[in-house]
Design brief:
495 residues, 15 helices, 37% helix
Length: 495
């Protein structure tokens, strides 16, 4: 595998990249073959000799069902082509596979001994160095639990951990959900480990899914296994680990970059609401004139009975310095926050969009899913909202679930729909509500311990830095431009 191939592969999800490397390895395409290597056919002869010796010494029994390696015919339809120095065999031929057992839990004499007893939850897809539970020699003598030597490769056969792997760093017994391979000395333990890792998805599919997917010991034994020369196995393992180390670095860099992107977005919002993201234009109408028009519009709507006169809100403090063309105001002064229209669920159309809190992604201002009323089992009432309204979650505001509605719908009463007066940009307003500054404010005044909420009064009194209308539009455009670049990077990282 060349560096050029790796560079092309970095655009993949790293999980896919790992699988690609494993596939190349078991197909004999990760490292070159060496004509000086002892061919795998000689390894099969040694396996046959060792098995015959063990049968003679009565360490194992000769099975009528299992032919010796040399008697096993070549596969007419091998899974894929392998190098000429390799041989097709089965997992059952390369070692002794044994499942474990659970000693009687009611017998206290079986537990707390000196023999490590591994459960499938202890498997870590790597070297097993910590097994918390121990059993006694008496437990091993009187149960299906068997002692496996250090270096045994383990695989979980069923349950939630199906396909999980491990290699024992010291002798240990296992429970019945775990199968251990004690190989005959012709397979590098790590080569076997990486082969099993490459086949995890196939094993899970063979397990049949369901509530308790199961790969039996028989399935493992009859799995075809491509056996390379022993020296090539070592080279393959070294190459896999070299590439996996590089992928680890990529993943660490990706995690660091994801964190940097999140911090960059917070910084962009912070600069935006401080008036430092775009330049001020002296030709812009100042925000003070905008506030005058908002006041006049609200007074006219009160006169016409469209809205009720509300308690006057005021800015209690000046959280930070803003440009001279801006004004400090409150959410209650520039929007209709709290004036929600409640609609009984029975009156909502079956094909209408109904938004719940779980449908909104944390921090991103994105909708995770759109579901219609017919897709939900709901009762009670919902808030009605229209295209362009700001949808603000007053429950657990630290989750930062705030966005602008892309079209009409209905939402849980934990979400407050609001629109602004005098064409104040709802997109600018949503960015302010998602900023670190406003998040800090809502967490200081939220009530409730387990499920803190923001009261309508506290929300309306929240201080809002208001730019001139033209600057609001420039700010929103710049935020969308910068966020678009950052989102593209995140998508490239496999998000």
């Amino acid at each position: 595998m060349t560096a050029k191939l790796l560079i092309r592969s970095i655009t993949m999800n790293t999980k896919t990249l790992r699988q690609k490397i494993l596939d190349l390895a078991i197909h004999g395409k990760l490292v070159p073959q060496d004509p000086n290597d002892e061919p795998a056919s000689e390894l099969l002869k040694r396996i046959k000799a060792e098995k015959e010796e063990q049968i003679k010494e009565e360490k194992i029994k000769k099975s009528k069902k299992t032919k010796t390696t040399s008697d096993t015919p070549k596969s007419e339809n091998p899974p894929f082509e392998i190098p000429s120095s390799w041989e097709w065999t089965t997992l059952g031929e390369i070692g002794v596979w044994q499942a474990g057992g659970t000693p009687n839990r009611m017998n206290m004499a079986y537990y707390g001994g000196t023999i490590p007893w591994l459960k499938t939850g202890d498997l870590n897809d790597g070297l097993i160095t910590d097994i918390p539970e121990f059993i006694t020699e008496e437990a091993v003598a009187n149960s299906s639990a068997k002692l496996n030597p250090a270096g045994s490769v383990l695989i979980a056969m069923y349950g939630a951990t199906i396909g999980k792997l491990g290699i024992l760093s010291y002798p240990a017994a296992t429970n019945q959900a775990c199968c251990a391979c004690i190989e005959y000395g012709v397979v590098e333990q790590l080569f076997l480990f990486y082969f099993l890792l490459s086949q995890r998805t196939a094993f899970i599919e063979k397990g049949g899914g369901g509530a308790q997917p199961n790969i039996s010991k028989e399935i493992i034994l009859h799995t075809s296994f491509p056996l390379p020369p022993l020296e090539e196995q070592k080279r393959i393992v070294a190459e896999i680990e070299r590439w996996f180390a590089l992928i680890d670095q990529i993943e660490q860099s990706k995690a660091a970059l994801q964190s940097t992107i999140a911090q960059a977005k917070k910084k962009i919002l912070d600069l935006a609401i401080h008036g430092k993201l775009v330049a001020q234009d002296p030709d812009d109408e100042p925000a003070s004139e905008l506030l005058k028009r908002i006041k006049a519009e609200k007074e006219q709507q009160i006169k016409e009975g469209k809205i009720k006169k509300s308690k006057k809100t005021k800015t209690t403090s000046v959280p930070f310095e803003i440009p001279s063309s801006w004004e400090w105001t409150t959410l209650g002064e520039i929007s209709n926050y709290g004036c929600c229209e409640n609609i009984p669920v029975a009156e909502i159309g079956e094909n209408d969009w109904v938004l719940e809190l779980e449908d909104i992604e944390k921090d991103t201002a994105r909708i995770a899913q759109i579901r219609l009323k017919q897709d939900r089992d709901i009762k009670g009432v919902r808030h009605k909202f229209t295209n362009g309204d700001v949808l603000y979650s007053k429950l657990r505001t630290y989750l930062n679930k705030v966005l602008v509605a892309p079209h009409n719908g209905y939402c849980t009463t934990e979400i407050v729909p609001l629109h602004s007066y005098c064409n104040v940009s709802t997109y600018y307003l949503s960015h302010v509500l998602r900023s670190g500054y406003f998040l800090d404010y809502t967490q200081q005044c939220g009530y409730g311990v387990k499920m803190p909420r923001l009261s309508t009064n506290d929300a309306c009194n929240g201080s809002i830095p208001l730019p001139p209308l033209a600057e609001q539009k420039r700010i929103v455009k710049k935020i969308e431009e910068l966020f678009g670049v950052l989102d593209t990077i995140q998508q490239a990282l496999g998000e």
